[in-house]
Amino acid sequence: MEALDGNAIGGLLHEVFGTEMTAATATCACCGATGPVALFTVFLRAPGTVARCRACSAVLIVIVRAKGMNCVDLSGIARLDRLDAA
Amino acid sequence: MAGTAVRRRLTWQVADVAAVCDETATVRTIELQTPDWAGHRAGQHVDVRLTAEDGYTAERSYSIASAPGEPVAITVQRLANGEVSPYLTSELRAGDELEMRGPIGGYFVWDGDDATRPLLLAAGGSGIVPFRSILRHRARSGAVVPVRLLYSVRSLADVIYRGELDQYTGSVSVTYALTRQAPPGWTGHRGRVDAPLLADVAWPVSREPVAYVCGPTAFVETVAEGLVRIGYPPDRVKTERFGGPGGS
User: Fold this and answer.
1) Considering only CB atoms, which chain B residues are within 8 Å of A23?
2) If you classify domain B119-242 with CATH, what class do you get?
3) How far from B199 is each of A20, B56, B70, B125, B154, CA to CA, in Å?
4) Is the pLDDT of residue B6 over 60?
5) For chain A, what are the domain ranges?
6) Is the peptide bond before B103 cis (omega within 30 degrees of 0)?
7) What is the interface pTM, i.e. ipTM, of the complex?
């Protein structure tokens, strides 16, 4: 399966976080790499949606949709900032 | 609009198809009328959802092809084994309804508020779509920032928005790389984008350009790495990967 990037889950992340997240800055809990969510390596049907760190490939986010709910695992992310947020 | 953090729920809405327009043999632009549209930024996309009679749904993302201030339009390439694109490019008619949500994205956007940085736009195939929005936004807003568009496409017959792109002159230059087939007498680039072509087309780093690269994953990787190699700061190379034809 071909890898996309964080832009591809802009809609899903907006659904989960309630706001635009692709321009947010994330820090990988594994290697410490920091960069925009848009740069995540993303697999849409892994199964579920999986975002990995572009630097070290560690799993950052897993989102599985079941019975109308999104089950969200963010344990791969050490820090998530929206610099433009008030 | 840049930098504002408007908290707005992203909800599915039903848009009316106002018009469809075939761009190439496999690519169609769909103009939408959306009753509840907050406006969009150049480079953003929408999610489209199709629902089958048995309730099965399929979602895809499509870049917005129209400028901010224009009605929303998307341009869709038909993928041979696609679940969604064959319907959108072959079945959908003006007057039909389409379920969508958006606008989406805040990274791969160009607002035109940094007029000092020349723009390099690099498109692979239907990666040209968000650049139509950016180029139209530039023209409509009266921006004078110079633009170089590098467009990698199989053949001239596969060029999307050919008529519109041909009208750009002067401070917008368009360079094609024809990867499969070139007409007799073609003096432009043949084959995939390579380092010499990139070095030729890309703005010198000293001009402090900003680059946007959109296309199939492999194209984006090649071009983005190539730009960084010739000195572009990685954070001035914005990328959007949409997978390759047949990838979904």
Assistant:
1) 106-107
2) alpha beta
3) 35, 47, 35, 20, 21
4) no
5) 4-81
6) yes
7) 0.91
